[in-house]
TrEMBL record, chain A:
SUPFAM superfamilies the UniProt entry points to: Adenine nucleotide alpha hydrolases-like
The keyword Glycoprotein is assigned to this record: no
Protein name, UniProt field: Electron transfer flavoprotein subunit beta
Cofactor list: AMP
Top-rank taxon, per record: Bacteria
Entry-linked CDD domains: ETF_beta
Assembly behavior: Heterodimer of an alpha and a beta subunit.
Length: 256, 379
């Protein structure tokens, strides 16, 4: 069974986000990690491979730093990696999905897995778009996956419960928290990772010209949430203070 | 940059850090409170290949360099100093003694199991009258019918009763000082070998520190490590590497204390602002961070020199001396910054301070380290 995993390098979830004077998000000196949802995807692919045999290929579109996430997946046990370096002025989900789909189209696959969203921009669009371009069924937000006889049985979260979906392979599955507990790469895995193949490509090499991957969506502005205001202490005797509190809740906060 | 790590070293450090913070740190307080040996930590570490980091792959290790091992000890000790010392003794002394001096047969029988973590290693040199001066050791052994008959006792043995194999130093030639010592690999189930009193220590409560008792213990002659009466060479060959390991342990403890102090100083409000905004506290934090970084540079330098095949006796002693003095200083300052809370067990810094003290004492007291450094300077 051949499995392709799409993954992305994102900001560490504990990173402090700041905005540069030019209005862009400051990425200098920020520690990066593999998108945690993609880690579930890698883990699931490795478990399926351990059960059914086959091969796991990890694919990422991004700058040179995306290489670290791919290396980590190789250290966890993936067999090979494809890194598409796209140095575009602006990229959106359309650009990423177009490039990813093109890179994956050149590979053999029975199953494509990715995180259901990235923790940085959180658009949750890319895997679905890849499925659409490749003409494959997609099941999102999966918390349990079984594969047998050319079919995938996926359990997904829906409002108030779960839904079990069956799709023929090949298909695209997106991972939600709860799908599995990702392994740590072992020391031996880390030592082996550098010797595993990492194929490097760019959009032109995949036959995509600048117009084909140009972003369709333009981010107009980034801003940080307003800092939380300090709490207010209402002084005085309990009876008076309570009256003042009720007045504040009715007149200032307008919630009663 | 002198602290520049390779791509593999960074990946490995990040993996060990994440593993240690998620899996080991949350249990450290409970292990300290209940004086429980952290067996489950060692099992998880074995699964990741952390029990034989610098041992070649052909003997079951991960085949990494010495610096990678040192970073592992730092990160594990930052989460739990007890687990850190168990790892350091097992690797620096248990694994390396067998790697350097073991026969093919001994390596097959012991090293492959030690490096994979199936066996835990211990090191038995210290005796009641032979601490900093091992020439004085008096546990005896005489060869009789293919076995060494061992009599005597060892004290302060890390992982006593928990380890599977004990690298044990015995006297085979009376009155010959360093020239009459032999090194033996003693199995836990050797007839006549028992575990004595377990020490109640100030810190490192998760690490078992015990007496070992040899009462006509029969150790097969094929378990002798190296040449008879040349056992002291084994101890000498391990000493410097072991010191870097304990330096890394001190560094990890200091780091944990600095992190705790920083977190607390940013949250604790006095006189209307976080105490981190008071200059008195800022100066303490600045000194603590500077010492931690300096300690890391010394520890990594010693490890790198070892990896490069350069002499590192002086550098190992400097690293051990400075990093463990730093551990004591920084943990003490962390308790001070946390004030009354720092003195309470609800916060981890009092544990760090108790754990730090021993690092100035074992693996060569810091007074011995100064002697070694001076001797190297003046030779």
């Amino acid at each position: 069974m051949k499995i392709v995993v799409c993954l992305k390098q994102t900001f560490d979830t504990e990173a402090k986000i700041t905005i540069n004077p030019d209005g862009k998000i400051n990425d200098q000196g920020v520690s990066l990690i593999m998108n945690p949802y993609d880690e579930f995807a890698v883990e699931e692919a490795l478990r399926l491979q351990e059960k059914n045999g086959g091969e796991v290929t990890v694919v990422s579109v991004g700058g040179a730093k995306a290489q670290d996430a791919l290396r980590q997946a190789l250290a966890m046990g993936a067999d090979k990696a494809v890194l598409v370096t796209a140095e575009l002025a602006a990229m959106d989900e359309y650009s990423t999905a177009t490039i990813l789909a093109k890179a994956i189209a050149g590979l053999e696959y029975d199953l494509i897995i990715g995180g259901f969203r990235a923790v940085d921009d959180g658009s949750a669009q890319v895997a679905g778009r890849v499925a659409e371009i490749l003409g494959l069924p997609v099941v999102n937000v999966v918390t349990k996956l079984e594969v047998a006889d050319g079919k995938a049985l996926a359990t997904r979260e829906i409002e108030g419960g779960s839904e079990v979906v069956e799709v023929p392979l090949p298909a695209v599955i997106t991972a939600q928290k709860g799908l599995n507990e990702p392994r740590y790469p072992s020391m031996k895995g880390i030592m082996k990772a550098k010797k595993k193949p990492m194929e490097k490509k760019d959009p032109a090499g995949l036959g995509l010209d600048a117009a084909a991957v140009a972003a369709r969506v333009c981010a107009l502005e980034y801003f940080l949430p307003a800092p939380r205001a300090a709490g207010k202490i209402i002084p005085g005797e309990p009876a008076e203070a309570t009256a003042a509190l009720v007045r504040a809740l009715r007149e200032e906060a307008r919630i009663i | 940059m002198p602290d520049q790590l390779t791509e593999e070293q960074i990946m490995m450090r990040d993996m060990v850090r994440k593993f240690a913070q998620n899996e080991i740190a949350p249990r450290a307080a409970e292990i300290d409170r209940t004086h429980r040996f952290p067996r489950e930590n060692l099992e998880k570490m074995a699964a990741l290949g952390l029990m034989g980091v610098p041992i070649p792959e052909e003997w079951g290790g991960a085949g990494c360099d010495f610096l990678s091992y040192i970073i592992t000890v730092e990160e594990i000790s930052r989460a739990c100093a007890s687990t850190g010392v168990i790892l350091a003794v097992h690797t620096s002394l248990g694994c390396f003694s067998t790697l350097y001096f073991g026969t093919e047969e001994q390596k097959k029988r012991y090293l492959t199991k030690l490096a994979t973590g199936e066996y835990l290693g211990a090191f038995a040199l210290t005796e009641a009258n032979a601490g900093s001066d091992p020439a004085n050791l008096s546990t005896t052994a005489r060869l009789e019918g293919g076995c060494y008959i061992v009599n005597g006792s060892k004290i302060f043995i890390t992982s006593g009763g928990e380890a599977d194999v004990y690298v044990t130093f015995v006297r085979t030639a009376p009155g010959r000082g360093y020239q009459g010592i032999t090194c033996l690999l003693v199995d836990r189930d050797t007839p006549g070998f028992t575990i004595g009193k377990k020490e109640e220590k100030m810190g490192l409560h998760g690490s078992a520190t015990t007496e070992l008792i040899f009462d006509n213990a029969r150790v097969p002659e094929e378990n002798r490590l190296g040449v008879e009466n040349e056992g002291f060479k084994v101890a000498m060959a391990l000493l410097d590497g072991g010191r870097i390991g304990i330096g890394a342990q001190g560094l990890g403890i200091a780091r944990a204390a600095l992190d705790a102090a920083l977190d607390y100083a940013k949250q604790r409000v006095q006189f209307g602002r976080p105490i981190a905004e008071h200059q008195a506290v800022q100066f303490m934090l600045a000194d603590m961070a500077t010492r931690v970084d300096a300690a890391r540079l010394l520890v990594y330098r010693a490890a790198r020199r070892r990896d490069m095949g350069l002499s590192y006796t002086k550098e190992a002693s400097m690293a051990k001396l400075y990093a463990t003095d730093t551990a004591m200083q920084v943990t003490t300052d962390a308790v001070q910054i946390l004030g009354g809370y720092g003195y309470c067990q609800e916060y981890p810094v009092e544990r760090y301070m108790r754990d730090a003290k021993i690092t100035q004492i074992y693996e060569g007291t810091n007074q011995i380290q100064r002697l070694v450094i001076a001797k190297q300077l003046l030779k």
